[in-house]
Design a protein that fits this description.
It is built from 14 helices and eleven strands. It is of the alpha/beta class and 395 residues long. A hairpin with a 2-residue loop joins strand 6 and strand 7. It binds pyridoxal-5'-phosphate. Pyridoxal-5'-phosphate binds next to helix 3 and helix 4.
Amino acid sequence: MTTTFKSKRYDLAVDTITEADIRELIDWLRAYPRLTMAHVTREFEKAWSEWLGVRYSVFCNSGSSANLLMYAALDSTGRSRNRGIVVPAVGWSTTVGPSLQLGWKPVMCEADPLRYSLDARALERLLREHRPDNVILVHVLGTPADMEPILALQEKYKFNLMEDCCAAHGARFRGRKVGTFGAMSSFSFFYGHHMSTIEGGMVSTNDEELYHHLLMLRSHGWCKDLPPEKYRELMAEHGVDSFHCPFTFILPGFNLRPLDLTARIGLSQLPRLDETVRRRAENHRRYQQRLEGAVEFARVGEADLISSISFGGVAASNAQRKVIVSALVKNEIDTRLFSAGNLGRHPFWTKRHGVFSAPVADRIHDGGFFLPNNQSLDAGDIDFVSDVVIKAVRG
Ligand SMILES: Cc1ncc(COP(=O)(O)O)c(C=O)c1O
């Protein structure tokens, strides 16, 4: 039997850590292993890279830390150049936050009316006007962004692309996994995501230089976590003797390290990830079929796969959302704001840059809501939730 923290009839998020995972963890703990970051972390990173299909991954303590590391690695390698960046209006606070914390120059972009990620036309206007050298996008709630026009713009304007896939594990654009398009991509392993390491995040990349910088930035800016040859090369370059080597700081780093304990939990869940993605995708498709004509939701192409963390619906008005939310609450169905709505209407942004207003982002802010989607729900559950929404909309 699996213990969950389920409190309502249908919770938005359920635990992905099973009793079997806990038993496996206890067995591992009985051997008194090292708990801080060491070889199990490296094992998990390797397994994750294989799953995603990239060369390198760096495990850290949250998806937000993964985003911070991506920005910091572009800075420390000198690639952030003019430090201008396009950030999404629909996404998460910590997708945008590092641009403010690190003193970059962010400009906010309207959401795509179909997929809710960056709108390519709005993106091009910003690229033409501001010439930023960096762009970060979110695959919103597991819906793959429309990568074709975005990659064409990258070709034309030559920006560094970061992909925030924190809630999009296993989503695919034309068959290719999200997280393999940009210079770097981030994932979250928080509770309720496709898999969980309690807290945790990952940055993935095919770029060796970025990989080395991510390793140093994660741990104080020292280089002793680098592959041994690179470590020796750097120490020789800086003329450091062997006594000083382990505590020589190359970069101004952070401490965003994970634990081997959390890596162990990640390793036991990774083999189930594809099945979780399959269930979430199937549930999502059923919601789409059932809710067609009742509420707005993301739309993708035939060859794309939505691996949603929650089903994001958008009501026709704020008043209609109130009716839907009250029907959901009455039926013990958990709901909440669609992601963070329009990030350009939150104080962390408006205090510095004023209110960002755009039709799609505002529509999501005023009418967006979540419906539960997770691996514990089946077709009957989706039908029940959908019927509650349909009845509320049709009065
Ligand atoms: C798009 C996106 N980015 C970043 C994060 C932050 O991840 P974490 O909670 O692991 O810090 C989240 C969290 O849900 C998210 O949805």
